[in-house]
Each structure stands twice: as C-alpha cells, then as structure tokens.
C-alpha cells in the first residue's frame, strides 16, 4: 500500500498525498507521489500504481534516463559531500510535493511557479525563496552531471515570475533588541539553575558580545581560536552562496574572548552543546521570566537571533565603522550593514555589566 499523508491548507480543508517508495537492496530505487482532494481517491491511485510498478519492466522504464524529480533530489543528496542541515531538510521536504513525482522531461516553468504558489500558502516569502533556490541547485547539476533533462531555463523563468508575483523575497527586518532589564532577568534565571546544566548564561552573553549566530556558536572549536590576535575561525558560516566550506576568521570583542576563556576545555568544541537545545532553552527561559507570553505578537517576542542584532547595534553605538563591525559580524557585503546607519554613537550600554563579571571574572 502507498502511504497516505493528510495536509491541512490555509482554508482549513485537507488534501491527501499518496506516496509510493520502492526500495532495492536497502536503497530507494523509485519514488512517486500524487495529491488528491479526498482520501478515497488517494488510496485507489496508490493501489493501482503500486500494482503497475510491481512489473519489473515498468519499474525499469520509470527509473532509466528520465527519473522523477524526487529521484534526482535523492541522487543530489547522496552525491553531495557537504550539505547544510537546513538545505538537507528543505530538499527532503520538497520530495513530498506533487512536482517531485513528475519526470524530469515533464517539468516546465509553470509547474515550478505552481510549487512556489503552494509553498507560499503556508510559508513566508523568505522561506519560499530558500526552497526555490535550494531546488535550483539540483537543476544546475542534473543535466551537465547526469544527463537528466531538467531545464535550467525553466527554473530561471520560474524564479523571475515568483519574484514578480511577490511569492519570494526578503524576510521582514526585525528590530527587536533585548533591554538590560530583560538580559538581567535571563541571566539570573540561567545562573540559578543546576551547576551541571547547559551554561546558558555563558552562551547567551557570548551570542550578544560576539554577534555569532546560534548554530555557529556550537561549531566553534578550540583549535580554531587565535587568542593572541583575539579572533576565531567560524566554520560553515551562513552565506547566500552556501554555508558548506565557507570558513571565515572573525574578530572577538574583548568581552567575548573573556567568556571563551571562562569555558572549560572538555571537548574540541568551545560550546559543545546541541544548537536546537540552546534555542529551546532560550525560548523557555523567555517564557518563565515573563519576556514572552502567549499573547506577545511575533515581532515583539525576544528570539535568540535578536542577540546578534543587539551585538551589531552595540558596536555601531560604540562609534565603530562599517568595516570594523564587519570583521566582527562576518558580513561580506557592507551593504547589509547599512540598516544600522541610523544608529548614533551613544556609548556602550553594556559597559560594566555585572553579569559579565559573574560568569567570566578577570583572573589575575
């Protein structure tokens, strides 16, 4: 039997996707899916198609030189040496859409635009952009590397149309910054926990002072620390061209280096913790101390990534120039830092912050 997956649309109605996966020697040999408005039709098609594919000749014909898009995505994943966690998750998710069941030769620009429309029903424009760009990478490889008839021009046309229709685009800029009072409440909560728990006080303060992203923090390694020059190598830094292999040295502000020095060397990583756990603990702490409530609108909620925004803002308020800030934040394009141009040199509101001394005392 085919697997039947129910999906809820924005209007509350359901659609039902019948998904067929055939394995040979423990590996996926063929994958197909099709979506229907009701479960009965999905079950009926799944049974009929499963019976058809039980004929070896039919299966061979289906998988020879014109595989489904899902099959091409599988090969792309299997042969890519380094895929970021987000890209891998997106590609696997795309295999569950109707388009993935089409043969390469059948896919045209209107099908790709339809995919973008479908994604936009439940995702914001920046997320749709990521999905489409990650999929375009598969189109770039498929024909020249494997001889599959995926049309790169169809993808380029679809990207242009999706942009014109505003299905894709940049995410709305967040301007949420933590207040000193909010950070004091978080630090008091984190420091009041068991001594053997994840040192979120150190991670949170480091995120703000260093301007590092959540996932980057948990990848920082002791061997990559250049303590003499107060800098560190950030591996797989986020970049529009792909994070894998994008290793960049960034400067560490004095406060960030103090926190690094306060960390015990128990593993190769300086902060040997799970990135998702860090995110979850920060969200829960914001609820416990009353910063975020169930009634707080999204734009007003404090998120871990807002610590990076605070850190970059702080550097500008300390009279640093765009080039000076860029070597800390890791921004390759100074244009991305123009959003901070309205900030004035007001000084460092975190100067003599008591919690820095508590978690990272200066040793004589």
Mean pLDDT: 88
What is the number of beta strands? Answer: 6
H and E string: EEEHHHHHHHHHHEEEHHHHH
Based on secondary structure, the structural category is mainly alpha
What helical percentage do the residues reach? 40-55%
Task: Report the biggest beta sheet as strand number plus sense, adding barrel if it closes.
Answer: 3 strands, antiparallel
Shape, per Cα inertia axes: elongated
Our count of helices gives 15
**Radius of gyration (Å):** 25 Å
Low-confidence stretches: none
Q: Name the strands of the widest sheet in spatial order.
A: 1-2-3
Approximately how much beta-strand content do the residues carry?
5-15%
How far is it from the N-terminal to the C-terminal residue, by CA?
70 Å
Please tell me about this protein's structure.
The chain has 364 residues and is mainly alpha-helical. The chain contains 15 helices and six strands. β1 and β2 form a beta hairpin. α5 packs antiparallel against α6, α5 packs across α7 and α13 runs antiparallel to α14. The longest helix has 22 residues. The protein is elongated, with a radius of gyration of 25 Å. The mean pLDDT is 88.
Quick structural overview:
This protein has 364 residues and is mainly α. The protein has helices spanning 39-53, 56-63, 69-79, 85-94, 109-120, 125-146, 152-164, 180-191, 200-210, 214-217, 254-261, 275-288, 306-317, 322-329, 354-359, and strands at 3-8, 14-24, 27-36, 225-226, 231-234, 248-251. Helix 3 packs antiparallel against helix 4 (85-94) and helix 5 packs across helix 7 (152-164).
């Amino acid at each position: 039997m085919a697997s039947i997956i129910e999906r809820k649309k924005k209007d509350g109605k359901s659609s039902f996707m019948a998904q067929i996966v055939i394995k040979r020697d423990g590996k996926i040999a063929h994958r197909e899916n099709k979506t229907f408005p009701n479960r009965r039709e999905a079950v009926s098609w799944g049974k009929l198609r499963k019976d058809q594919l039980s004929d070896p000749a039919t299966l061979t014909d289906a998988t020879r030189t014109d595989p489904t898009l899902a099959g091409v995505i599988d090969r792309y994943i299997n042969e890519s040496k380094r895929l970021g966690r987000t890209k891998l998750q997106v590609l696997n998710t795309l295999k569950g859409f109707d388009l993935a069941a089409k043969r390469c030769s059948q896919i045209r620009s209107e099908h790709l635009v339809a995919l973008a429309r479908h994604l936009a029903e439940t995702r914001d424009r920046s997320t749709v952009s990521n999905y489409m760009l990650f999929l375009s990478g598969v189109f770039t490889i498929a024909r020249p590397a494997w001889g599959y008839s995926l049309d790169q021009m169809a993808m380029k046309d679809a990207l242009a149309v999706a942009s014109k229709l505003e299905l894709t685009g940049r995410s709305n800029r967040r301007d949420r910054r933590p207040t000193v009072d909010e950070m004091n409440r978080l630090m008091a909560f984190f420091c009041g926990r068991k001594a053997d728990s994840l040192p979120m006080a150190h991670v949170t303060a480091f995120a703000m002072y260093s301007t590092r992203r959540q996932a980057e923090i948990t990848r920082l390694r002791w061997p990559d620390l250049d303590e003499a020059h107060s800098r560190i190598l950030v591996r797989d830094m986020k970049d529009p061209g792909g994070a894998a292999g994008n290793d960049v040295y960034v400067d560490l502000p004095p406060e960030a280096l103090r926190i690094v020095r306060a960390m015990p060397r128990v593993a190769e990583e300086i902060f040997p913790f799970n990135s998702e756990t860090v995110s979850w603990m920060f969200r829960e702490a914001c609820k416990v101390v009353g910063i975020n409530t169930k009634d707080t609108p999204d734009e007003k909620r404090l998120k871990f990534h807002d610590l990076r925004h605070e850190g970059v803002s702080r550097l500008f308020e300390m009279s640093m120039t765009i080039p000076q800030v860029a070597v800390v934040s890791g921004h390759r394009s100074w244009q991305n830092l123009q959003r901070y141009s309205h900030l004035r040199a007001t000084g460092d509101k975190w100067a003599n912050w008591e919690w820095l001394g508590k978690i990272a005392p200066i040793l004589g």
